[in-house]
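in:
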């Protein structure tokens, strides 16, 4: 989560919503990382999670990320939760919950929907106060 927080802070400094994500392989090695780049890339899909998943898939040379863990500072949205399921990620470790758009247990629970072909374990609350503070500081400065 420390690296995800570094990435989040860098995204915020660049003008994007401060979210950072890291994909760890089954052995704990870093396979990919990402920070929000929606503003920088003018790309609505450039969420930290999607960028980290793309980097991890490229590093592995395959789209299936079986046994991998995504560590992210903010609960994934519906798009990102769907990407976790489609990539076959084993678990997601979340810092702060997203009570407006979260899709891994707060507003929706896409990753544990029994109708889908894969379910993702959710571990929440890791450095939650610190992750939430990064977001609160960012949005307070814009209001």
């Amino acid at each position: 989560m420390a690296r995800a927080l570094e990435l989040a802070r860098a995204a915020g400094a660049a003008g994007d919503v401060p979210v950072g994500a890291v994909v760890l392989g089954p052995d704990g090695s870093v396979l990919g990382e990402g920070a929000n780049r929606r503003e920088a890339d003018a790309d609505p899909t450039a969420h930290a999670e999607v960028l980290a998943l793309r980097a991890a898939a490229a590093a592995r040379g395959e789209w299936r990320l079986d046994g991998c863990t995504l560590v992210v500072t903010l609960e994934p949205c519906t798009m990102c939760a769907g990407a976790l399921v489609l990539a076959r990620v084993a678990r997601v470790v979340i810092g702060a919950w997203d009570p407006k758009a979260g899709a891994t247990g707060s507003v929706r629970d896409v990753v544990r929907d029994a109708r889908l072909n894969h379910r993702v374990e959710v571990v929440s609350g890791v450095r939650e106060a610190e992750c939430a503070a990064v977001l609160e500081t960012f949005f307070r400065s814009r209001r």
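note: Residues 128-142 form the longest helix (15 residues).
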